[in-house]
Protein backbone atom coordinates (compact mmCIF):
# COMPACT_ATOMS: atom_id res chain seq x y z
CA UNK A 1 0.00 0.00 0.00
CA UNK A 2 1.27 3.42 -0.86
CA UNK A 3 2.68 5.58 1.87
CA UNK A 4 2.11 9.27 2.59
CA UNK A 5 1.61 11.42 -0.46
CA UNK A 6 4.04 14.30 -0.47
CA UNK A 7 4.07 16.31 2.77
CA UNK A 8 6.23 19.18 1.58
CA UNK A 9 5.35 22.56 3.05
CA UNK A 10 5.51 25.70 0.91
CA UNK A 11 9.14 26.79 0.54
CA UNK A 12 10.49 29.99 -0.83
CA UNK A 13 12.67 29.55 -3.92
CA UNK A 14 14.96 31.79 -5.92
CA UNK A 15 14.06 34.84 -7.98
CA UNK A 16 10.84 35.62 -6.09
CA UNK A 17 9.22 32.22 -6.71
CA UNK A 18 7.30 30.26 -4.13
CA UNK A 19 6.55 26.54 -4.28
CA UNK A 20 2.92 25.72 -3.58
CA UNK A 21 1.63 22.17 -3.52
CA UNK A 22 3.92 20.95 -6.25
CA UNK A 23 3.61 24.13 -8.31
CA UNK A 24 5.79 27.20 -8.47
CA UNK A 25 4.21 30.60 -8.92
CA UNK A 26 5.66 34.05 -9.29
CA UNK A 27 5.40 36.09 -6.10
CA UNK A 28 3.67 39.04 -7.69
CA UNK A 29 0.57 40.74 -6.34
CA UNK A 30 -1.78 39.00 -8.76
CA UNK A 31 -0.74 35.48 -7.74
CA UNK A 32 -0.51 36.27 -4.05
CA UNK A 33 -3.94 37.86 -4.00
CA UNK A 34 -5.52 35.01 -5.91
CA UNK A 35 -3.74 32.26 -3.99
CA UNK A 36 -3.84 33.51 -0.46
CA UNK A 37 -6.81 35.96 -0.48
CA UNK A 38 -9.82 34.65 1.41
CA UNK A 39 -8.33 31.16 1.66
CA UNK A 40 -5.35 32.22 3.74
CA UNK A 41 -7.48 34.32 6.06
CA UNK A 42 -9.70 31.31 6.73
CA UNK A 43 -6.72 29.03 7.21
CA UNK A 44 -5.21 31.32 9.84
CA UNK A 45 -8.25 30.88 12.09
CA UNK A 46 -7.65 28.30 14.83
CA UNK A 47 -10.27 25.57 14.74
CA UNK A 48 -12.17 24.99 17.97
CA UNK A 49 -12.72 21.47 19.28
CA UNK A 50 -16.45 21.58 18.67
CA UNK A 51 -15.86 22.17 14.95
CA UNK A 52 -13.20 19.47 14.64
CA UNK A 53 -15.48 16.39 14.53
CA UNK A 54 -12.71 14.75 16.59
CA UNK A 55 -15.03 12.29 18.32
CA UNK A 56 -15.38 10.46 15.02
CA UNK A 57 -13.07 8.63 12.64
CA UNK A 58 -14.67 9.79 9.39
CA UNK A 59 -15.12 13.56 9.12
CA UNK A 60 -16.28 15.90 6.37
CA UNK A 61 -16.01 19.55 5.43
CA UNK A 62 -16.30 21.57 2.25
CA UNK A 63 -13.62 23.20 0.13
CA UNK A 64 -9.99 24.09 0.63
CA UNK A 65 -10.05 26.37 3.69
CA UNK A 66 -12.26 24.34 6.04
CA UNK A 67 -10.70 21.04 4.94
CA UNK A 68 -7.22 22.42 5.62
CA UNK A 69 -8.27 23.53 9.11
CA UNK A 70 -9.97 20.20 9.86
CA UNK A 71 -6.89 18.29 8.73
CA UNK A 72 -4.41 20.50 10.59
CA UNK A 73 -6.41 20.08 13.79
CA UNK A 74 -6.28 16.29 13.51
CA UNK A 75 -2.58 16.23 12.60
CA UNK A 76 -1.74 18.55 15.49
CA UNK A 77 -3.57 16.19 17.84
CA UNK A 78 -1.29 13.37 16.69
CA UNK A 79 -3.63 11.61 14.28
CA UNK A 80 -2.48 10.22 10.95
CA UNK A 81 -4.91 11.60 8.38
CA UNK A 82 -6.04 10.35 5.00
CA UNK A 83 -7.93 13.05 3.09
CA UNK A 84 -10.27 12.12 0.24
CA UNK A 85 -10.81 14.75 -2.45
CA UNK A 86 -14.20 14.53 -4.20
CA UNK A 87 -14.84 16.71 -7.27
CA UNK A 88 -17.25 14.68 -9.41
CA UNK A 89 -17.77 17.25 -12.20
CA UNK A 90 -15.06 16.94 -13.09
CA UNK A 91 -11.58 17.02 -11.49
CA UNK A 92 -11.49 13.70 -9.63
CA UNK A 93 -13.41 11.96 -12.43
CA UNK A 94 -10.68 13.20 -14.80
CA UNK A 95 -7.99 11.92 -12.43
CA UNK A 96 -9.74 8.54 -12.24
CA UNK A 97 -9.99 8.15 -16.02
CA UNK A 98 -6.36 9.20 -16.44
CA UNK A 99 -5.13 6.85 -13.72
CA UNK A 100 -6.99 3.95 -15.35
CA UNK A 101 -4.85 4.57 -18.44
CA UNK A 102 -1.62 4.71 -16.41
CA UNK A 103 -1.31 8.49 -16.70
CA UNK A 104 0.36 10.43 -13.88
CA UNK A 105 -1.64 13.56 -13.06
CA UNK A 106 -0.07 16.79 -11.82
CA UNK A 107 -2.74 18.98 -10.20
CA UNK A 108 -2.16 22.70 -10.81
CA UNK A 109 -4.07 25.52 -9.14
CA UNK A 110 -4.28 28.15 -11.85
CA UNK A 111 -5.72 28.33 -15.34
CA UNK A 112 -3.32 30.83 -16.89
CA UNK A 113 0.00 31.05 -18.74
CA UNK A 114 1.90 29.66 -15.77
CA UNK A 115 0.23 26.29 -16.35
CA UNK A 116 1.95 25.86 -19.71
CA UNK A 117 5.35 26.64 -18.21
CA UNK A 118 4.67 24.17 -15.41
CA UNK A 119 3.75 21.46 -17.94
CA UNK A 120 6.74 22.19 -20.19
CA UNK A 121 9.14 21.88 -17.26
CA UNK A 122 7.84 18.36 -16.63
CA UNK A 123 7.47 17.22 -20.22
CA UNK A 124 3.75 16.89 -19.58
CA UNK A 125 0.60 17.44 -21.62
CA UNK A 126 -1.43 20.44 -20.45
CA UNK A 127 -5.20 20.04 -20.19
CA UNK A 128 -6.78 23.14 -21.70
CA UNK A 129 -10.16 24.67 -20.83
CA UNK A 130 -13.10 22.79 -22.34
CA UNK A 131 -14.05 25.78 -24.47
CA UNK A 132 -10.61 25.86 -26.10
CA UNK A 133 -11.00 22.29 -27.36
CA UNK A 134 -14.53 22.52 -28.74
CA UNK A 135 -13.42 23.04 -32.36
CA UNK A 136 -9.95 21.50 -32.64
CA UNK A 137 -10.15 18.81 -29.96
CA UNK A 138 -7.40 17.97 -27.53
CA UNK A 139 -7.26 17.25 -23.83
CA UNK A 140 -9.15 19.39 -21.35
CA UNK A 141 -10.68 19.17 -17.88
CA UNK A 142 -13.09 16.73 -19.52
CA UNK A 143 -12.96 13.03 -18.67
CA UNK A 144 -14.24 12.06 -22.12
CA UNK A 145 -11.39 14.03 -23.77
CA UNK A 146 -8.82 12.31 -21.56
CA UNK A 147 -10.27 8.92 -22.46
CA UNK A 148 -10.23 9.76 -26.17
CA UNK A 149 -6.59 10.92 -26.01
CA UNK A 150 -5.31 7.43 -25.28
CA UNK A 151 -1.84 7.10 -23.77
CA UNK A 152 -0.54 10.18 -21.98
CA UNK A 153 2.47 9.77 -19.72
CA UNK A 154 2.22 12.96 -17.70
CA UNK A 155 -0.83 15.26 -17.55
CA UNK A 156 -1.20 18.66 -15.91
CA UNK A 157 -4.76 19.40 -14.77
CA UNK A 158 -5.33 23.08 -13.92
CA UNK A 159 -8.24 23.40 -11.50
CA UNK A 160 -9.03 26.08 -8.91
CA UNK A 161 -11.14 23.56 -6.99
CA UNK A 162 -9.85 19.98 -6.98
CA UNK A 163 -6.21 20.91 -7.55
CA UNK A 164 -6.26 23.57 -4.84
CA UNK A 165 -7.90 21.22 -2.35
CA UNK A 166 -5.31 18.54 -3.18
CA UNK A 167 -2.45 20.94 -2.54
CA UNK A 168 -3.67 22.37 0.76
CA UNK A 169 -4.45 18.92 2.16
CA UNK A 170 -0.91 17.79 1.41
CA UNK A 171 0.43 20.96 3.05
CA UNK A 172 -1.72 20.18 6.10
CA UNK A 173 0.02 16.82 6.53
CA UNK A 174 -2.50 14.34 5.10
CA UNK A 175 -2.14 11.39 2.81
CA UNK A 176 -4.37 12.34 -0.14
CA UNK A 177 -6.44 10.23 -2.54
CA UNK A 178 -8.87 11.20 -5.31
CA UNK A 179 -12.38 9.72 -5.20
CA UNK A 180 -15.13 9.80 -7.77
CA UNK A 181 -18.25 7.76 -8.34
CA UNK A 182 -16.20 5.60 -10.74
CA UNK A 183 -13.83 4.36 -8.03
CA UNK A 184 -15.69 4.93 -4.76
CA UNK A 185 -15.61 1.24 -3.77
CA UNK A 186 -11.90 0.92 -4.61
CA UNK A 187 -11.22 4.02 -2.50
CA UNK A 188 -13.26 2.60 0.38
CA UNK A 189 -11.26 -0.65 0.25
CA UNK A 190 -8.01 1.35 0.23
CA UNK A 191 -9.22 3.36 3.24
CA UNK A 192 -9.96 0.22 5.24
CA UNK A 193 -6.41 -1.00 4.55
CA UNK A 194 -5.05 2.42 5.47
CA UNK A 195 -7.00 2.44 8.75
CA UNK A 196 -5.76 -1.02 9.71
CA UNK A 197 -2.18 -0.11 8.84
CA UNK A 198 -2.36 3.19 10.74
CA UNK A 199 -3.87 1.59 13.83
CA UNK A 200 -1.01 -0.88 13.84
CA UNK A 201 1.59 1.89 14.01
CA UNK A 202 3.41 2.43 17.28
CA UNK A 203 3.50 5.63 19.30
CA UNK A 204 0.39 7.35 17.94
CA UNK A 205 -0.91 10.14 20.15
CA UNK A 206 -4.40 9.79 18.64
CA UNK A 207 -6.27 7.41 16.39
CA UNK A 208 -6.32 7.76 12.58
CA UNK A 209 -8.79 10.08 10.91
CA UNK A 210 -10.36 10.12 7.44
CA UNK A 211 -11.30 13.56 6.14
CA UNK A 212 -13.76 13.63 3.24
CA UNK A 213 -13.59 16.82 1.21
CA UNK A 214 -16.35 17.62 -1.28
CA UNK A 215 -14.52 20.29 -3.28
CA UNK A 216 -17.54 22.25 -4.46
CA UNK A 217 -17.49 24.87 -7.19
CA UNK A 218 -16.96 28.64 -7.31
CA UNK A 219 -19.40 31.48 -7.79
CA UNK A 220 -18.19 34.32 -10.05
CA UNK A 221 -17.02 36.27 -6.97
CA UNK A 222 -14.77 33.37 -5.97
CA UNK A 223 -16.85 32.20 -3.01
CA UNK A 224 -17.62 28.53 -2.50
CA UNK A 225 -20.67 27.03 -4.17
CA UNK A 226 -21.44 23.72 -2.42
CA UNK A 227 -22.07 21.29 -5.29
CA UNK A 228 -24.52 18.51 -4.51
CA UNK A 229 -22.77 16.04 -6.82
CA UNK A 230 -19.70 16.26 -4.59
CA UNK A 231 -21.87 15.60 -1.53
CA UNK A 232 -23.24 12.52 -3.32
CA UNK A 233 -19.72 11.43 -4.21
CA UNK A 234 -18.55 11.74 -0.61
CA UNK A 235 -21.66 9.89 0.52
CA UNK A 236 -20.99 7.11 -1.96
CA UNK A 237 -17.57 6.61 -0.37
CA UNK A 238 -19.19 6.62 3.08
CA UNK A 239 -21.66 3.92 2.01
CA UNK A 240 -18.93 1.71 0.56
CA UNK A 241 -16.66 2.26 3.58
CA UNK A 242 -19.29 1.33 6.17
CA UNK A 243 -20.20 -1.71 4.09
CA UNK A 244 -16.61 -2.93 4.17
CA UNK A 245 -16.13 -2.28 7.86
CA UNK A 246 -19.37 -4.15 8.67
CA UNK A 247 -19.56 -4.80 12.43
CA UNK A 248 -16.55 -2.54 13.01
CA UNK A 249 -18.59 0.47 11.83
CA UNK A 250 -19.71 1.53 15.30
CA UNK A 251 -21.72 4.61 16.26
CA UNK A 252 -18.63 6.82 16.55
CA UNK A 253 -17.28 5.97 13.08
CA UNK A 254 -19.11 8.72 11.19
CA UNK A 255 -19.43 12.35 12.19
CA UNK A 256 -22.94 13.76 11.65
CA UNK A 257 -21.53 15.63 8.64
CA UNK A 258 -20.23 12.42 7.07
CA UNK A 259 -23.43 10.58 7.96
CA UNK A 260 -25.49 13.29 6.24
CA UNK A 261 -23.48 12.77 3.05
CA UNK A 262 -24.22 9.06 3.21
CA UNK A 263 -27.92 9.78 3.58
CA UNK A 264 -27.83 12.13 0.60
CA UNK A 265 -26.22 9.38 -1.49
CA UNK A 266 -28.97 6.88 -0.61
CA UNK A 267 -31.53 9.31 -2.04
CA UNK A 268 -29.99 9.19 -5.54
CA UNK A 269 -28.07 5.91 -5.89
CA UNK A 270 -30.90 4.26 -7.84
CA UNK A 271 -31.24 7.19 -10.27
CA UNK A 272 -27.68 8.42 -10.44
CA UNK A 273 -27.51 9.36 -14.11
CA UNK A 274 -30.74 11.32 -13.94
CA UNK A 275 -29.69 13.11 -10.76
CA UNK A 276 -26.30 14.11 -12.16
CA UNK A 277 -27.86 15.56 -15.31
CA UNK A 278 -30.47 17.46 -13.28
CA UNK A 279 -28.18 19.03 -10.66
CA UNK A 280 -26.84 22.54 -11.28
CA UNK A 281 -23.34 21.48 -12.33
CA UNK A 282 -24.65 18.68 -14.53
CA UNK A 283 -27.18 20.90 -16.20
CA UNK A 284 -24.46 23.46 -16.91
CA UNK A 285 -22.33 20.84 -18.68
CA UNK A 286 -25.23 19.30 -20.60
CA UNK A 287 -26.52 22.64 -21.86
CA UNK A 288 -23.01 23.64 -22.95
CA UNK A 289 -22.62 20.46 -24.97
CA UNK A 290 -20.63 18.30 -22.54
CA UNK A 291 -23.23 15.65 -21.71
CA UNK A 292 -20.63 12.92 -22.34
CA UNK A 293 -18.66 14.14 -19.33
CA UNK A 294 -21.69 13.76 -17.08
CA UNK A 295 -22.15 10.24 -18.41
CA UNK A 296 -18.53 9.33 -17.59
CA UNK A 297 -18.97 10.75 -14.07
CA UNK A 298 -21.97 8.44 -13.59
CA UNK A 299 -19.98 5.25 -14.30
CA UNK A 300 -20.44 3.86 -10.80
CA UNK A 301 -17.76 1.42 -9.59
CA UNK A 302 -16.18 0.91 -13.02
CA UNK A 303 -12.62 1.55 -11.80
CA UNK A 304 -10.50 -0.45 -9.37
CA UNK A 305 -7.75 2.16 -9.35
CA UNK A 306 -7.08 4.58 -6.47
CA UNK A 307 -5.12 7.72 -7.44
CA UNK A 308 -2.77 8.53 -4.56
CA UNK A 309 -1.04 11.92 -4.37
CA UNK A 310 2.71 11.44 -3.86
CA UNK A 311 5.23 14.26 -4.26
CA UNK A 312 2.59 16.40 -5.94
CA UNK A 313 1.51 13.77 -8.50
CA UNK A 314 -1.52 11.48 -8.58
CA UNK A 315 -0.46 7.97 -9.56
CA UNK A 316 -2.48 4.77 -9.83
CA UNK A 317 -2.60 2.28 -6.96
CA UNK A 318 -4.75 -0.77 -6.52
CA UNK A 319 -6.21 -1.71 -3.16
What is the approximate shape? Answer: globular
The total strand number stands at: 14
- State the strand order across the main sheet: 4-10-5-9-13-14
Tell me about the largest β-sheet: 6 strands, mixed
Mean pLDDT: 85
Alpha carbon gap, first and last residue? 7 Å
Give the DSSP E fraction (strand runs of 2 or more residues): 15-25%
Number of structurally distinct domains: 1
CATH superfamily assignment?
ComB-like
CATH fold group: putative 2-phosphosulfolactate phosphatase
Low-confidence stretches: 1-45
Helix content: 40-55%
CATH class: Alpha Beta
Structural notes for this entry:
The chain has helices spanning 29-43, 64-76, 91-100, 113-121, 143-149, 162-171, 184-199, 228-245, 256-268, 272-278, 280-287, 291-297; strands spanning 11-12, 17-20, 23-26, 58-60, 81-86, 104-108, 125-126, 154-158, 175-179, 209-214, 217-218, 224-225, 305-310, 313-318. With 319 residues, the protein is α/β, with parallel strands linked by helices. The protein has one domain: ComB-like (putative 2-phosphosulfolactate phosphatase). The protein is globular and about 55 Å long.
